[in-house]
Amino acid sequence: MKYILTAALAVVVFAFTPLKKERGDAWISLFDGKTTNGWHTYNQSTAGAAWKVENGTLHLDPSGNTGRGDLVTNDEYENYQLMLEWKISEGGNSGVIFNVKEDKKYEDTYMTGPEMQVLDNDKHPDGKIPKHRAGNLYDLIAGPDKVKPVGEWNKMEIICNKGSLKFYLNGVNVVTTTMWDDNWRKMIAGSKFKQWPDFGTFTKGHIALQDHGNSVWYRNIMIKKL
Length: 226
Known about the structure:
Number of strands: 13
Largest sheet: 8 strands, antiparallel
Distance between the termini: 47 Å
CATH topology: Jelly Rolls
Low-confidence stretches: 1-24
Shape: globular
Number of helices: 2
Strand content: 25-35%
Structural class: mainly beta
CATH architecture: Sandwich
């Protein structure tokens, strides 16, 4: 019994060591688990009421008719590593949009910022479209399917550093590309984003959590400047 207890404790210590390392001095928490401090609805001054803080998560509750819209960080970021966890509702759709330029001339975050897709691949129609599945660089690059079943938490990581862009989903590198070069511009020209000339052109911007009309939960949102 003593041996079994010691082994169990060792497993617990091992499991939590990486998390402690991730939360070192270089990491900045973007969500305190209690309030929407540091966030606001895109092109507004405060966070809309549809974004609720529940049990240490940011939950988009789209059931009401007010307080809707993408939630964005107050600050802009350039050259960073972003980590968070997300959980989507059945048939749900959302996304994490980055390098967003906030300006009244841009009605939506997706007019400037690329997106790492958040999706129920099995029940949402986008799950049948290549480049629209969870973990993809939305409408630009498809990657391997590493999403967990609906109701489970997925760990997402975006590394954007001096033109190098990498996505990780549940510990697997699902997208690797270079931003702002000829190939990047070619991909955009062949996508739905070609209608917005400033899409994917900014090297610095806000982080956005997308309101796509479905319940979604986010937690453990952290960033490290590179």
